[in-house]
Amino acid sequence: MKRLMLIIFLLSGYLLFAVDFEENPDVANAGDIIQLAIPVAGFLTALVIGDKDGRNMFLKSVIVNTALTHGLKYIIDKPRPEGNGHYAFPSGHTSAAFQGASFIQRRYGWKWGIPSYLLASFVGYSRIEGESDMHDIWDVLGGAALGISCSYYFTDRYTKNDLSVGIISGSDMYGFSFSYNF
Fold first, then answer.
1. Is the pLDDT of residue 94 over 60?
2. In terms of residue numbers, what domain contains 28?
């Protein structure tokens, strides 16, 4: 799993740093790519390591996050900052990126969560800055909060071994304990 996650993060990081911001000021394009790369990385990790529970948690989280994000966009109908359309709140790109990042962090730990959150933060930045300027800070914060909330609600910590072994000791008694989670 460590090698797979490392490869996925290196590819995602390459996408971020391959953009020459002075030569190509279109930060939004990098954000478009990374907002998909983060959740895909989380789902592929669960798929490759055979984490069936993780796949199910991810799917529940992404479905609810997508439904809530787009439902809120239509209910709130907030205009975009530059007057270039409607449905600004919450930011869908940011919501998707933070849903993926928080799934990775919650399921597989902070070691992978920190780089995920950094990439997701870049996605939020890409929605505020750049040529498109599609959102303000509140849209991005709303998307981030929604994505994180959905993953935290549906996702539990991954444990490789469901078998626990312990030693029991007491007055004139010694033994082993075995526990298996189904």
1. yes
2. 2-180
